[in-house]
């Protein structure tokens, strides 16, 4: 699992390609969860004369216009520059809660999601965000909740900040505990 800021989608995708090459695999798929929506991302290495790196992005609300992007070995570093804005329109970003909370959760569907075996590969710099807690509560990620608890000086928070953190509401105003 990866907690990914809007500006870091490309960096995570690039690292996934490197991981595929290292493990001698050709493809993987991920669920992409925003605070208000779920999408899918497929990445594939096509071993032909150009060694194409293929990114397929699927938004179930935009079924006729899924995105497919190709990169070759000579421009693979360009993947790093991709952001959520390259995959989603301004309207979709707002509707899916990615304008207010600029964080998504990428879940590798080829790995076990058993809560005892979940491996968090990337956390945001600031884990003290309602959206992080909401994702953690929704996915049963106890280690994230423990980390927030252990790393936070709650006495430094105002009552309002503490209330927002404890509610951990998503973009639809639904608390993380529901």
Automatic annotation (TrEMBL):
Domain ShET2 enterotoxin N-terminal: 1-161
InterPro entries membership: Toxin_15_N
Taxonomy, superkingdom: Bacteria
Protein name: T3SS effector EspL
Pfam families in the cross-refs: Toxin_15
